[in-house]
Amino acid sequence: MLNKSKLERVVAKMKEQDMPQMIITDPVSIFYMLDKWIIPGERMLALYINVNGDVQLVLNKLFPQTEDLGVPLTYYDDIEEPVGILAKFIEKDKTIGIDKNWPARFLLKLQDLGAGSKFVNGSVIVDKVRQIKDEHERQIMRESAKKIDEVMDKLIPWVAKGLTERELNAKCVELCKEVGFQGLSFDPITAYGKGGADPHHVTDDSKGKYGDSVVLDIGGMWNNYASDTTRTVFIGEISDRQREVYNVVLEANKRGIAAAKPGNKMSDVDKAARDYITEKGFGEYFTHRTGHSIGLEDHEVGDVSLVNDEIIEPGQCFSVEPGIYLYDEGIGVRIEDILYITEDGCEVLNGYPKEEPIVVPAEK
């Protein structure tokens, strides 16, 4: 059913951006608006919104809707031209916002038909609205985070059981199903030693050995919302060097979290974490942004980086996940938590312990 509150927020943003009409075609964003998954494959699916109140959903007859979606439906079949049908609703003398992921074959046809005087990126509207989670979404995100913490707790003992990275990855998938996740947020990262010291490492048949650091970056989907967390643990023992790196990353994680509050910039969060790592002499080994927004997808618009000066607002959800990667030493450490921005600070959704490095007894 069309969520009127979300529609009102979208229309308000459209008016702010002087965008009189737009089409939403990303199935994730359409689900966000209608609370209904419609996966069209290669066929056209479009939700048309006009600030004058006109809303239309255009979809193929292969996807008949048996329930009231709260929006007029226009069907087409495979021998009809769907873009031409969509064009009938569009005010041709006005600007129209286009979904950033809409295939060029549809957009080019719409342009050929002259449906709209100017074509602009309409996703900036929906992406911004999706950034701000309501209390219902917040509760689901809490539940999702709690479940992935449970998976982490079950997964960690397996790092010292002689599994390959692929086998550890498969164990993570199994555990996600066991706790009730409907799917994965992304393919888990289960990396030993030098694998964990390579941020772009592809899971392979390596096995962990005594003294390895192990990076576990995992996430699952709960009631359509993603979770994501990273903990770094150690097999058998932790060296002084590993402890030093771990403590620097932990403090950077904490400083990033402390900077995550309304009125600050997303770049302030990145800077808080990055400056500390640089101060400690590891700046060149922190090779990625500090975080990303999260919700219906694991990576949503609004990254936590030095170039994003967007002002943080209550309701946002994003990760803080600094890391240090010393490939030549075989040491990789990343610590990641998901935050929900409150009126005066933030709520850390992940609760799995991180204050002290976890050393997993090596099995003989």
List the helices and strands and how they pair.
Elements: H1 4-16, E1 21-24, H2 27-34, E2 46-50, E3 55-60, E4 73-76, H3 82-87, E5 95-98, H4 104-112, E6 118-121, H5 123-131, H6 135-155, H7 165-179, E7 183-184, E8 189-192, H8 193-196, E9 213-218, E10 220-222, E11 225-226, E12 229-235, H9 240-259, H10 266-279, E13 291-293, E14 300-304, E15 317-320, E16 323-326, E17 331-334, E18 337-341, E19 346-348, E20 358-360
Parallel strand pairs: 1-5, 3-4, 5-6, 12-20
Antiparallel strand pairs: 1-2, 2-3, 7-10, 8-9, 9-12, 10-11, 13-14, 15-18, 16-17, 18-19
Which features does this protein show?
364 residues, alpha+beta, six-stranded mixed sheet, 10 helices, four-stranded mixed sheet, single chain
What does this entry look like structurally?
With 364 residues, the chain is α+β, with helices and mostly antiparallel strands. It has 10 helices and 20 strands. A 6-stranded mixed beta sheet has the order 4-3-2-1-5-6. A 4-stranded mixed beta sheet has the order 8-9-12-20. Strands 7-10-11 form a 3-stranded antiparallel beta sheet. A hairpin with a 4-residue loop joins β16 and β17. α6 crosses α7 and α9 packs antiparallel against α10. The radius of gyration is 23 Å and the shape is elongated. The model has no long low-confidence stretch (mean pLDDT 97).
